[in-house]
Automatic annotation (TrEMBL):
Chain residues that bind Zn(2+) 1: 83, 197, 231
Ranges in a coiled coil: none
Name of this chain's protein: Fructose-1,6-bisphosphate aldolase
GO terms of molecular function: fructose-bisphosphate aldolase activity; zinc ion binding
Xref: PROSITE patterns: ALDOLASE_CLASS_II_2
The organism of origin for this protein: Alkanindiges hydrocarboniclasticus
Family: Belongs to the class II fructose-bisphosphate aldolase family.
Superkingdom of this protein's organism: Bacteria
Function: Catalyzes the aldol condensation of dihydroxyacetone phosphate (DHAP or glycerone-phosphate) with glyceraldehyde 3-phosphate (G3P) to form fructose 1,6-bisphosphate (FBP) in gluconeogenesis and the reverse reaction in glycolysis.
């Protein structure tokens, strides 16, 4: 069944678990996420970025999610729009049937330029007014995602601020977060606490203080009724990096956010944990290995099926680690 983000995260807060929000672009991802949810009896958040809409086309994305709901009617599914860059984009998603939208007013309409507080409040409040009238939830963002190690937003051409950010932008201020929630009425709030988008988060193996856990605690204490969201939460599995590179890939040494630290964040109010990169890495590793080891094969279903299994394993692991399992 289709449910809103608010409905799901209220339940998650009551029972102290987190929910991974997986990005979806194609049929294999959709099936991997749903098969993992079915296997572990987990509720689901699937999210579509602007890039996903461009790749698959909005009608295909919409019907893929609706098809998942039809095939697994016992699994609650939140259909979320990731990183909306304007109220118009969010409104279109609401019309398309999304049950939750993110208005990311921390960046301008180009998805790159950091904005000021008043702009962020103005666009986000507008989306809250429209969305809540339709029973749709809203996620906002305050602070700019980026590595505390390098000050970089992470991705070269994806979602994220351009150039180097300073330390105060990279850590969400608890007072500003509280003011933002009061000014906008968002259901969930994405915070900046040391993660960044993409595969290149940390250049060295992460220490156990790689996330600003103290900051998460302060924000949660200040706005206990707002569900916190962590973007850039991929763990960048080293085993998949090794497989990719073993079979002809060239991925530089890089590290993500350890699962244990995500679990720690969940104890302090983080309820939605955004994961895209991990499924991309598993998918690419599975394809490279399959093509290299079966060079005579030309039925694409053979290697696409391997991507489903690879992604499903990661989804199962996150549902279990985050305590999502058993809550469908
Ligand atoms: O937040 C970014 C997500 O990983 C989506 O990435 O814009 O390449 O689809 P994308
Ligand atoms: P990753 O790049 O760490 O998977 O983060 C994805 C994300 O935050 C999508 O909004
Ligand atoms: Na989002
Ligand atoms: Zn994100």
């Amino acid at each position: 069944a289709l449910i809103s983000l608010r409905q799901l995260l209220d339940h998650a807060a009551e029972y102290n678990y987190g929910v991974p929000a997986f990005n979806v672009n194609n049929l294999e991802q959709m099936r991997a996420i749903m098969m993992a949810a079915d296997q572990t009896n987990s509720p689901v958040i699937v999210q579509a970025s602007a890039g996903a809409r461009k790749y698959a086309g909005a009608p295909f994305l919409r019907h893929m999610i609706l098809a998942a709901i039809e095939e697994w009617p016992h699994i609650p599914v939140v259909m979320h729009q990731d990183h909306g860059t304007s109220p118009d984009i969010c409104q279109r998603s609401i019309q398309l049937g999304f049950s939750s939208v993110m208005m990311d007013g921390s960046l301008g309409e180009d998805g790159k330029t950091p904005t000021d507080y008043d702009y962020n409040v103005r666009v986000t409040r507008r989306v809250v007014e429209i969305a809540h009238a339709c029973g749709v939830s809203v996620e906002g963002e305050i602070g700019c995602l980026g590595s505390l190690e390098t000050g970089m937003a992470g991705e070269e051409d994806g979602v994220g601020a351009e150039g180097i950010l300073d330390h105060s932008q990279l850590l969400t201020d608890p007072e500003e977060a509280a003011q933002f929630v009061a000014d906008t009425g968002v259901d969930a709030l994405a915070i900046a606490v040391g993660t960044s988008h993409g595969a290149y988060k940390f250049t060295r193996p992460p220490t156990d203080d790689i996330l600003a856990i103290e900051r998460i605690k302060e924000i949660h204490a200040r706005i206990p009724n707002t569900h916190l969201v962590m973007h850039g939460s991929s763990s960048v599995p080293q085993d998949w990096l090794a497989i990719i590179n073993q079979y002809g890939g060239e991925i530089k040494e890089t590290y993500g956010v350890p699962v244990e630290q995500l679990v720690e964040a969940i104890k302090h109010g983080v309820r939605k944990i955004n994961i895209d990169t991990d499924l991309r890495l598993a998918s690419t590793g599975a394809i490279r290995r399959e093509l290299a080891t079966n060079p005579a094969e030309f039925d694409p279903r053979k290697f696409f099926a391997k991507t489903i299994t690879a992604m499903q394993e990661i989804c199962v692991a996150r549902y279990e680690a985050f305590g999502t399992a058993g809550n469908a």
